[in-house]
Design goal:
Helix content: 25-40%
Order of helices and strands: HEEHEEEEEEHHHEEEEEEEEEEEEEEH
CATH architecture of the largest domain: Beta Barrel
Structural class: alpha+beta
Number of domains: 3
Radius of gyration: 37 Å
Distance between the termini: 10 Å
Strand order of the largest sheet: 4-13-16-15-14-17
Largest sheet: 6 strands, antiparallel, barrel
CATH superfamily of the largest domain: RNA polymerase II/Efflux pump adaptor protein, barrel-sandwich hybrid domain
Strand content: 35-45%
Amino acid sequence: MRFKKTLLSLLISQSLAVFADDGQIKISQEQIDNLGIQVGGISKSNQTPLFYAPATVVVPANHELLISSTQPGLVVKLAANIGDQVEKGQILAQLNSPELVNLQREYLNASSELSLSTQEYQRDQKLLQEGVIAERRWQETQTIHNSKSAQLDTAKQLLVMAGMSAGEIKTLAQTRQLTSQLNIRAPISGVILERSVTLGSRLDLQAPLYRIADLSELWLEINLPQERLNTINVGDTVKLENSTSTAKIKLLGQSVDHANQTVLARAVLNDKNASLRSGQHLNVQIMQNSAQNGFSVANTAIAQNQGHQYIFVRNAEGFEVREINVTGRQNTESQISGNLSGDEQIATKGAVALKANWLGLGGDE
């Protein structure tokens, strides 16, 4: 009642000459400005909101890796913490590993043996060309050389598997200096989600150190009520509550959770949202693609009267009162249908004042 009296006083103070006739509100531009009425367009929308459901943000399995110790050793340095953004090849930790020294020694021995074998190979090749040695001896020399080469390749591969980079192996071959320091590097660029060790820990082979994930793509795992499955299709849009981000349903599960009778749906986010976190719980709204064209308008553009909804379409004389159907709501916007082309300009703010004039201040708010 107080609101109506305030609005009545405002209308009287503005000396409005406004009246309604067959759904037409005649009002001048000056009166529109004085009432603070704002006009804007409507957006076409072919999606209908269905219902809200709980969801969890997850990282795709192929975007997540577990980093483990490639050799037994003592953790002497941890260079990354939970939440850090790291680049591929960046050192995450350092181990003191005596086993690494043995692998390096075997590599250097294999390198020396191949070097000697190469000299014999080159010598016998020349002697064969000069006819000094028999073909059989040349074949034996080739076999020995190939075996030594394979041994070096194996020793080098073991160093790679142990975690040494190509540059570190090259330096070892040049300097022939052994080291027990093993660098654990990031296999991909991503974010550290979990750290499993502390400084000074003694690790066995394949002991977990870090869990890292590439967050360039995130999924939503949505718990859908089984009774609503017949209204949902792969390809339907999912809107996040209190966010402009959307996702698209890519999978509908084939089993029902016996505890809560829901079906798991997977949706892929269409854009990267820095505010989302792996493991985060949120509410989403399922939007169904509709064959009928609808429209999206601000909630403030809609007026109600006796169970019906209306918007006010701008024309030369003021505003036309046009009835619409509200098919759904999403945050500050509503999806509507009705006799609209999509080119209309409507009152996006000040619909209450227009409604008051249309009803002679007698309608329900």
